[in-house]
Amino acid sequence: AQKITQTQPGMFVQEKEAVTLDCTYDTSDQSYGLFWYKQPSSGEMIFLIYQGSYDEQNATEGRYSLNFQKARKSANLVISASQLGDSAMYFCAMREAGYSTLTFGKGTMLLVSP
Amino acid sequence: DAGITQSPRYKITETGRQVTLMCHQTWSHSYMFWYRQDLGHGLRLIYYSAAADITDKGEVPDGYVVSRSKTENFPLTLESATRSQTSVYFCASNGGPSVSSYNSPLHFGNGTRLTVT
Questions:
Q1: To which H or E segment does residue B36 belong?
Q2: Which residues pair with A74 in a beta bridge?
Q3: Which of B102, B104, B107 to mutate to test the interface with A (most CBs of A within 10 A)?
Q4: Exposed, middle or buried, B104 (CB in 10 Å: 0-12/13-18/19+)?
């Protein structure tokens, strides 16, 4: 079974609108961390936001927020007020307790139109 | 500048040839990682290293060899390249899974695009 599932291969959104990118995860650990990365067309991997499994508040970083629903094992990325520069591939990833590695989902391609 | 550097950025090689992808980081991070990125698969872990002379297999290690004689370098070698190894390869690092760094993200290099003909 996949540990990280991103069910949306592609998403379209108009500039200035909000968009939610879905991520569900599978773990039996109580301690874990969830990460989102952005990969623009230039190819680099840019860290966006982190959510720990014990964090009571949803993480926020500027226009990015993480809608963390622990019971549903979901960690959706919300981008408010989309900009053209948000067009990119977005990856959700998880680190489980005791592990140094991140397991990535397959990614969601977001296209922002004017 | 401090950071993580991969070389080369682009490489074309022939089937059966040996090729080495280089990765160098200046943060003195203990952990280093190699991932490959393929359409439809996301990023998959090839090998990782917890410290100099300590390496371990990831999800897709077959056909690859790594070494880590110095903390700052983590080269990835394809001993006999195959077309299925055509991919974008990312090196990454972070400080390690201690309590203080549990939430630390991986820091990625800019990637090496490898084509095996």
A1: strand B31-38
A2: A24, A69
A3: B102
A4: buried
Give the model confidence (pLDDT) of A18-37 as tens digits. 999 999 999 998 999 999 99
Greatest pairwise CA separation for chain B in angstroms: 45
Per-residue pLDDT tens over the stretch A67-99:
999 999 999 999 999 999 999 999 999 998 778
For residue A109, which of B42, B106, B107, B113 has the smallest C-alpha distance?
Answer: B42
B6 torsion bin: left (phi>0), alpha (psi -120 to 50), beta (else) = beta
Nearest CA-CA distance, residue B102 and chain A, Å: 8
DSSP state of B104: P
Q: From B31, B114, B105, select the one nearest A38 (Cα to Cα).
A: B105
3-class DSSP state of B84: helix
Alpha-carbon separation of residue A43 from A40, A89, B1, B66 (angstroms): 6, 9, 20, 23
> Looking at beta carbons, which residues of chain A come within 8 Å of B103?
33, 50, 52
Cβ B28 vs Cβ B95: under 8 Å: no
CA distance A110 to B111: 21
